[in-house]
């Protein structure tokens, strides 16, 4: 059999096998160990800001995937779970849509969000998460709230749509996907990608009950004694430092938020509300304890999952740097205070950063963003 026919018959098997996965014939598949491939060709839109990322092994100048070199996406076969209603149509015209997951929680939330939103805008594309250990970060944070199924499949020769920071360049492409399976690739760091499905996305990013319980117990435990029976406002503060404020990062345009920013932001809330409690979360609590001072401040020592829940369930929030901070701001129902100094124009971040892409339009109870210096 020549290579082309081999490929075709493999693909036919794949499509058949994929349908089986969805209708729940998982046991059979595990026994037969059939291969599931995700096949198409590779294109790219816009400029890649990740082209030099060594993890990104399968993007190259000719925009062709090297089949043997898909180290990130693995080479395995069986779909192990299908937590979605097993109703994938076998009609022609359906394609799969997946995203590669890179970075930590904040980046992964963007990658999940754009996958979710793009699938909603393109009904013939079925979203699918590639099973990989890295995704546990997302799954351990939101558990069963995430509705997109996971599968253990191989990506071969996929059409890659590359995310860039300026969402306007990308949005048109994401509304009209090429007629093939598609891999969303990169860092889609803008609310614009999912503005049309934000209510549903908030449901996807719901913390499991045990986490919410842990947060409300924590809130109770740090409530100032004299306010036990009084109404008061709780403001989360996220202070991102360490790896995002190294000398190298600063050269790229990441600005460490100065203590005065936090003082001014706290002042903003204290002037607005009678009683305000602040809860500080950070990757550098020692710095916070030296620099974020005043009355009614609690310093959280939880892990990042619980910290994200503490922040986003607060009444209002003061954010700092990085995608984790951004998401806490997006998830929080009240006012989100952000730092009003933009990255310098002559830096990497200054060039790719677009304030309009990052600051949501104020249009509901969530999106009131206020810039403070
Ligand atoms: C990749 O896609 C191209 C263009 O559709 C096709 O010619 C080629 O055979 C595909 N290769 C594989 C390995 O699927
Ligand atoms: C893409 O990169 C090229 C070269 O760096 C630049 O001239 C062009 O303006 C960029 N296009 C977009 C849409 O950013
Ligand atoms: C990307 O890699 C090329 C080739 O190694 C190098 O010349 C270039 O400076 C790199 N660009 C950045 C932004 O690191
Ligand atoms: C990209 O892949 C093509 C085809 O496999 C190869 O000829 C080319 O050298 C690769 N380019 C880079 C920059 O790796
Ligand atoms: C995979 O990568 C290795 C090392 O970069 C290279 O030698 C090999 O030719 C690549 N395989 C394919 C199929 O592109
Ligand atoms: C699954 O199907 C049942 C019965 O049709 C329906 O009630 C339920 O809402 C569906 N669940 C999802 C997640 O689509
Ligand atoms: C995918 O399946 C292979 C064997 O079929 C297994 O070795 C691997 O651990 C699975 N990966 C995940 C993430 O489940
Ligand atoms: C964070 O702590 C909670 C329990 O307090 C735990 O369930 C969760 O797995 C932890 N998350 C991480 C990333 O360690
Ligand atoms: C950022 O963009 C938002 C929304 O477009 C705008 O209201 C705000 O003034 C901008 N902030 C800065 C610091 O330019
Ligand atoms: C940076 O670039 C933006 C957009 O091109 C421009 O509006 C702004 O004035 C520039 N800022 C500085 C300090 O040059």
TrEMBL record:
Pfam families assigned: Glyco_transf_11
Regions crossing the membrane: 6-24
EC class (word): transferase
E.C. numbers: 2.4.1.-
Topological type in the membrane: Single-pass type II membrane protein
Highest taxon of source: Eukaryota
Organism of provenance: Paralvinella palmiformis
Protein family membership: Belongs to the glycosyltransferase 11 family.
Keywords of this entry: Glycoprotein, Glycosyltransferase, Golgi apparatus, Membrane, Signal-anchor, Transferase, Transmembrane, Transmembrane helix
Localization: Golgi apparatus, Golgi stack membrane
GO molecular function, one term: galactoside 2-alpha-L-fucosyltransferase activity
Keyword hit for Hydrolase: no
Signal peptide region: none
The protein's name: L-Fucosyltransferase
InterPro entries: Glyco_trans_11 (IPR002516)
């Amino acid at each position: 059999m020549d290579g082309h026919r081999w490929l075709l018959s493999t693909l036919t098997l794949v499509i058949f096998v994929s349908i089986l996965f969805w209708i729940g014939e998982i046991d059979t598949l595990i026994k037969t160990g059939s291969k599931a491939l995700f096949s198409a060709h590779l294109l790219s839109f816009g400029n890649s800001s990740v082209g030099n990322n060594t993890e990104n092994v399968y993007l190259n100048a000719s925009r062709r995937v090297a089949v043997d070199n898909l180290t990130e996406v693995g080479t395995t076969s069986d779909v192990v779970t299908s937590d979605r209603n097993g109703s994938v149509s076998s009609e022609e015209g359906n394609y799969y849509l997946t995203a590669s997951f890179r970075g930590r929680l904040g980046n992964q939330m963007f990658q999940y969000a754009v996958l979710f939103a793009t699938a909603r805008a393109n009904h013939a594309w079925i979203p699918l998460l590639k099973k990989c250990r890295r995704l546990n970060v997302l799954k351990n944070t939101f558990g069963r709230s995430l509705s997109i199924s996971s599968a253990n499949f191989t990506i071969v020769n996929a059409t890659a749509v590359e995310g860039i920071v300026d969402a306007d360049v990308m949005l048109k492409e994401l509304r009209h996907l090429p007629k093939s399976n598609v891999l969303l690739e990169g860092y889609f760091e803008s609310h614009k990608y999912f503005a049309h499905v934000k209510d549903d996305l908030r449901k996807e990013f719901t913390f499991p009950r045990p986490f919410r319980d842990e947060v409300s117990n924590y809130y109770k435990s740090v409530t100032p004694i004299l306010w036990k029976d009084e109404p008061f406002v709780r403001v989360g503060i996220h202070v991102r430092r360490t790896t995002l404020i190294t000398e190298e990062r600063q050269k790229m345009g990441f600005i460490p938020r100065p203590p005065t920013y936090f003082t001014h932001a706290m002042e903003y809330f204290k002037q607005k509300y009678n009683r305000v409690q602040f809860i500080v979360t950070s990757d550098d609590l020692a710095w916070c304890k030296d620099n974020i001072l005043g009355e009614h401040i609690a310093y959280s020592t939880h892990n990042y999952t619980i910290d994200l829940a503490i922040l986003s369930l607060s009444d209002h929030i003061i954010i700092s740097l990085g995608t984790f901070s951004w998401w806490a701001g997006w998830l929080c129902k009240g006012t989100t205070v952000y730092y009003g100094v933009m990255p310098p124009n002559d830096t990497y971040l200054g060039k790719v950063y677009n304030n309009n892409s990052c600051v949501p339009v104020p249009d509901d109870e969530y999106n009131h963003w206020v810039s403070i210096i």
